[in-house]
Amino acid sequence: MHPDGERILFTEEEIRARVAEMGREISRDYAGRELLVVGILKGAMIFLADLVRSITVPAFFDFIAVSSYGTSTKSSGAVRILKDLDRGIEGRHVLIVEDIVDTGLTLNYLVDNLTARGPASLKVCTLLDKPSRRQKPVEIHYNGFTIPDEFVVGYGLDYNECYRNLPYIMVLSPRVFGGGR
Ligand code: PRP
Ligand code: MN
Ligand code: MG
Q1: Residue 45 lies in a domain
Q2: Residue having the nearest C-alpha atom to atom 10 of ligand 1
């Protein structure tokens, strides 16, 4: 394990098995339809790349990047689009793919924003759900793992942009981020 980790939460093998299972479930649910997978940059990128390879219906990709204003104002729910989708989603079956739902601010905003664009359907798929920190409600249709309130990194998830490329998910040692959350 990376020296900044306290313990491994999900190994590469555990993630691979669960992601493949999610892909099979999504493929069943969308049988006969075409899927537009919307990835939330940057955290969702690794999960999305693995997930879509387990999806057997035709899948198109688009990406959106958002930023929430600093930690103190994050609770205000202010989310800003840094890079919008390349194309419209009207009439499409949209699946939002996220790495983690934490306070819910990001997805609560995005679901409303994308719903207003008139998709045929809109569902949310996340690898991790941390329900203990929720501030805004988010309906999750596909969830990989529910996790406790610990700071996790790896497999796309970062701390100060570090650790995204780790193939497993680990709990970050409090000595790295100075305790707190
Ligand atoms: C992280 C994570 C989710 C969001 C979840 O993204 O990837 O997108 O926060 O938090 P929330 O439920 O409290 O809104 P971040 O803003 O760190 O950007 P990143 O994906 O580029 O790391
Ligand atoms: Mn993110
Ligand atoms: Mg981040």
Answers
A1: yes
A2: 102
